[in-house]
Amino acid sequence: PSIPRHTNRLINEKSPCLLQHADNPVDWYPWGQEAFDKAKKENKLIFLSVGYSTCHWCHVMEKESFKNKEIGEIMNKNFVCIKVDREERPDVDKVYMTFMQATSGGGGWPMSIWLTPDLKPFVGGTYFPPEDGVHCVGFRTVLLRIAEQWKENKDALLENSQKILEALLHRSEIRLRGQESPPPSKEVMATCFQQLSNSYDEDYGGFSESPKFPTPVNLNFLFMYWALHRTTPEGARALQMALHTLKMMAHGGIHDHIGQGFHRYSTDQHWHVPHFEKMLYDQGQLAATYSRAFQISGDEFFANVAQDILLYVSRNLSDQEGGFYSAEDADSYTTTASGEKREGAFCVWAAEEIRALLPDPVEGATEGTTLGDVFMYHYGVKETGNVSPMQDPHQELKGKNVLIVQRSTELTAAQFGLELGRLGALLGEGRQRLSAARVQRPQPHLDTKMLAAWNGLMISGFAQAGAILAKQEYVSRAAEAAAFLRRHLFDPTNGRLLRSCYRGKDNTVEQNAVPIQGFLEDYVFVIQALFDLYEASLEQGWLEWALQLQHMQDKLFWDPKGFAYFSSEAGDPSLLLRLKDDQDGAEPTANSVTVTNLLRAACYSGHTEWVEKAGQILTAFSERLQKIPITLPEMARATAVFHDTLKQVVICGDPEGADTKEMLRCVHSVFSPNKVLMLADGDSTGFLYRQLPFLASLERKDRKATAYLCSNFTCSLPFTSPQELCGML
């Protein structure tokens, strides 16, 4: 495309989302003092648009409204327009999303909010079409009406915005309400299981009709519930719900059968037609969850899916310096010559394309069968396309196919008279050829922003998969990414994390002129990652850094009055609310994960005040945990860890010894969610021995690697047999 002549202030930003809007005729400002001062000085309302670079409906609204010159003029004349990347500034996003959900009962992106000059919201929505339609008011009309209201009824608007803010402050407060102890885990777990069981889709798995999100937090809760109730019908159902959901997702179109990895969510009940963007946080959590499913079930199917996800991330979302990129877009050009992007263009297939790529006759199959016939039968490909018009409002997928495993390998093999092994090889060959053809298509946009929190989730995915699947290369990749965080997203002078860095020109890593400081979720997900990486690698340096970051998290975010952690630091006058998130969604909420982090930190350090903090968080969220734990499945899971006391599994041995490695294999092969692992290597000057004096009293028996199971620093008799240890776990 020719270089656009006009650019606005966003051209100076690093965020890919903001840069996408740098050539709009809208006079966009980034979130900051310059915009706030202009609104006050000119007494103008602020129009705040929040999105992210791989958001399909954000692209639609930009194309229809923000690139429209006339609409741009209305916006510039009447408002100070601010654009925010929600991934870069989750604190700003959460404040105004809280307003959206409180006033309209829903929310999403793009988020469109109008604020008074002092940043108080008074009206908002999500996507607006440019012009009035039969069922909705157009963006142009909304802009003009709001501008008129500001002229005619300014005082009423200001008064209203103040009332809204007071109501939000009251509504969003999570604190101790006179109750002294954390809620009982048995009841919380039972209620959460019942609520998930009631919303479970028996046929296709998942926990809603549509849209369907992967939500690994639900599956991890069900694994924990099974571990505590292995011999009961409820326990068996919990495991079946989780494994069936994971199988249906892996067979579905939400899973990219050609390019690997998972799309963000399915628009239908069958996991078939997704929104095609791929997010790093999904890949990280799902790699860990599929690895756990393999650990529990022994079914190689789940191990293969975990490896498929990690292949995608290594190939498509990895920076050469070691960090992980945020996301891959849903929209791309259909051909190198086309001027218009379409959703899913990179991923979908016409039947004739597949026939042309797979024309080979299949030996030994029924007469006249081609590789294309076998492939199309197995993956539900239809001549006229397999996407229902209901799932395709803009007709972008008309005549196209989203691949979905519609038949078992047994059924496909029987249909064409093939042996199972031979069918597997044929399908693999078909996928490879489609992959080679797909690489020639115009690639979707890559969001090369690197976020501390999401890198943390991905490090956990690589570390856990490496430990469970016994793949050292995954553990090494996790360590490489952790070293990247230490180099580029950590300030050793003050011990603090930064939120984001960016791939710059010449593939160097760049930082904002004023770096964005880390939020609670950055600390929590990175600390979790470092614990997971320690357990996979037994490198004590990661443990030491995790405990330093935990102290810093306490200092910056802990609420000493109401308990639990705030999502953002104190002291930013542009943030109207300091919130505590109360919902585990596509990502777990930071307070949920930090409960387990604190319990792990206490086990590795002997600091019992961290156990106390974990209990105080559960107490602050007690009402929600007892009434609607389905909104906090990760925190519900953590109540069980809290009440059951984490067991310390200590292996005394030489890290390089074969007997030590055999013990460690055993630990990693068993799903035992209420344990921490540590290696006592006999080096009394090392970090762990300095933290935990009791380790000095544990010794190797008969000079063999020896395991101890400890609880509250009191240990069992020693084991030297890996089988015995497996049994105990």
Task: Please tell me about this protein's structure.
The chain has 729 residues and is α+β, with helices and mostly antiparallel strands. Among the domains are: 164 residues, Glutaredoxin (3-Layer(aba) Sandwich); 94 residues, no CATH class; 81 residues. Helices cover 48% and strands 10% of the residues. It has 27 helices and 21 strands. A five-stranded mixed sheet has the order 1-3-2-4-5, with helices on both faces. A four-stranded mixed sheet has the order 19-18-20-21, with helices on both faces. The longest helix is centred in the first third of the chain and has 19 residues. It starts with 15 loop residues before the first helix and ends with a helix. Pfam families: Thioredox_DsbH (PF03190).
The CATH topology annotation of the domain at 9-172 reads as Glutaredoxin
Broad CATH class of the domain at 9-172: Alpha Beta
Spatial order of strands in the largest sheet: 1-3-2-4-5
Q: Helices and strands: which structural class? A: alpha+beta
Give the strand content: 5-15%
CATH architecture classification name of the domain at 9-172 = 3-Layer(aba) Sandwich
For this entry, what is the oligomeric state of its chains? single chain
Number of separate strands: 21
The description of the largest β-sheet is: 5 strands, mixed
CATH superfamily of the domain at 9-172: Glutaredoxin
Radius of gyration: 27 Å
Mean pLDDT: 94
The global form is: globular
| Unreliable segments of 5+ consecutive residues | none
What is the CA-CA span between the terminal residues?
61 Å
Helical stretch count? 27
Helix content: 40-55%
